[in-house]
Design goal:
- This protein is of the alpha/beta class.
- It has 6 helices and 6 strands, in the order βαβαβαβαβαβα.
- Helices cover 36% and strands 18% of the residues.
- Helix 1 crosses helix 3.
- 25% of the residues are buried.
Length: 134
């Protein structure tokens, strides 16, 4: 089955070239099937590369997947253009009332910092707590 990602997400052309079955959002709306909803809280610096990697893996399943890209509410990404974030990501505050079948939190290159110095640590802890019931 295909993976449903935003129509203009840069990963789309890479995935299609690799033969991954990618569905247009407009086509997915017309189908009478409930896709598996997966949220991806992407903390990696190279967000486009990470999106592509996860979409590739999820798109290889026999299920229809709806991938929602999520960002920390108040953290500004430094390595990804803001236009990309604005176009394809929703803040955790905007999605926290929703239900997901799965929620992936990527790693982040903060291994040399004490957790308390990570600017989004408190919000990340709330997200981890939230995943226990959502």
């Amino acid at each position: 089955m295909p993976i449903k990602i935003p129509d203009n997400l840069p990963a789309r052309s890479v995935l299609e070239a690799e033969g991954v079955n990618v569905m247009l959002e407009t086509d997915a709306v017309r189908q009478d099937i409930r896709p598996m909803r997966i949220g991806l809280l992407n903390l990696m610096p190279n967000k486009v590369k990470t999106e592509t990697q996860f979409a590739r893996l999820l798109g290889a399943t026999p299920l229809q997947i709806e991938l929602s890209l999520v960002k920390m509410t108040n953290h500004e990404a430094r390595n990804t253009p803001s236009e990309h974030i604005i176009s394809f990501y929703r803040s955790w505050e905007d999605v926290r009332s929703e239900r997901f079948d799965g929620f992936i939190v990527t790693g982040a290159p903060v291994e040399l910092l004490p957790f308390e110095q990570v600017t989004y640590w408190d919000e990340l802890r709330r997200i981890f707590d939230w995943t226990q019931t959502h």
